[in-house]
Amino acid sequence: MNLTRVTLPTLPEFFEKYRKGEYRFLEDVDLRTLLYNVTFNCTEMFSSCTFKSHHEDCCKMFIPTFTEYGICFVFNSQHHVHKILDIEYPEVAIQKIQETDPDWAVRFVVRNIETPFWIYITSSDELASTDVQPHHIWDFRVEEVMFSVKETYTTPDTAQLSIKQRRCAFDDDIKLVGYTDYSYTLCTRQCRMNNALRHCNCLPYFFPPHNKQCDIHGLICIAEKLEEIQNLDHCHCYLGCSNTVYEVEKLDALGTGRDEIWKSTLTCKFVSWPMVKYKREVLFGWVDLLVSFGGIAGLFLGFSLLSGVEIVYYFTIRAFFMLLMEKDELRRIKKEESMKPVPAYDLSLTPYFISKPLPGYGIDQVLKNYKKSEEMGKQMVLGRRRLKPPSDVVIPPFGIDFIH
């Protein structure tokens, strides 16, 4: 197996050959540096490049970058490397396509047409990873790849929801090591890095060198634990709230009679303008729910937020300060209430339109009937017959003090 084709998924196959003695010379070699030295550079890879109908320097357009598939040449990416061996690359300004541009395409001519190229079309904050299949494997029988764009953006009011509720993550929701922006592929890449550190205490050479780099023995551990390292069940990675999806819509096959130069030329372009854009927003949030309940309460009960605040104030803050600051006034009111005579209550059940109120508002009559029934209960039983009190006796209510 060619060393430049060693990727995370093909590590077990590589070390099967290592065990047979084919790669024993790699034990004391810096694999990251070795891979840079044996990989084609941009002048050996590309002969000419064009962007929006303008010829560009291929070495400034396409920058070699380590991915889980080895070294890839990336264009218009935020995650390119800044220095490889002794070669320094300047900061890349992300270029955008405008509707008024003469051409919405990237075109390049390669020098080698023996090995197929894997073509990934991603947004500038994404990287090729093992989670995503290539959009096209260019075997030099196609001259144009036309793709469409579907963009999803999320309004800021969704931040009131949890990540599980909105099913997406903002840049500040999940922090990634070495990256300021968040994306799904970077999150899963970070998860595999954490798994590799947990199982083997090192990272393969195609991951960012933030931690200890694996030697050949560390890579053997990675190959043996590959299934556990690629397991994403506990990663909790979500799509980014600003997410762009590119889909290949059309492939133009190479026409008959084309010469050799056309076989080595590929054009990647937008299929049409404008792009499709989706919006994720909260249609009915907690504030809307509160407003709705407030409207219903105000319509049927005359309730408002101000009256609710007043009720809480009256029974809490106002009562507390009254007990604290008006103790003398409260004692005076309590004393006055205790000195007031007990009001007379008419306990008779006869309506006033039939009979005028009895003397003492019926209390005398109730007391009279009560004493009569009490005397009858004390009489002796004559023979087998017990005298029963009359059924129309009125018993005074419980708790009336005047009985005693």
TrEMBL record:
<keyword id="KW-0407">Ion channel</keyword>
<dbReference type="GO" id="GO:0005886">
    <property type="term" value="C:plasma membrane"/>
</dbReference>
<dbReference type="InterPro" id="IPR001873">
    <property type="entry name" value="ENaC"/>
</dbReference>
<keyword id="KW-0915">Sodium</keyword>
<keyword id="KW-0739">Sodium transport</keyword>
<keyword id="KW-0812">Transmembrane</keyword>
<comment type="similarity">
    <text>Belongs to the amiloride-sensitive sodium channel (TC 1.A.6) family.</text>
</comment>
<dbReference type="GO" id="GO:0015280">
    <property type="term" value="F:ligand-gated sodium channel activity"/>
</dbReference>
<keyword id="KW-0406">Ion transport</keyword>
<keyword id="KW-1133">Transmembrane helix</keyword>
<dbReference type="Pfam" id="PF00858">
    <property type="entry name" value="ASC"/>
</dbReference>
<keyword id="KW-0472">Membrane</keyword>
<keyword id="KW-0894">Sodium channel</keyword>
<keyword id="KW-0813">Transport</keyword>
<protein>
    <recommendedName>
        <fullName>Sodium channel protein Nach</fullName>
    </recommendedName>
</protein>
<feature type="transmembrane region" description="Helical">
    <location>
        <begin position="282"/>
        <end position="305"/>
    </location>
</feature>
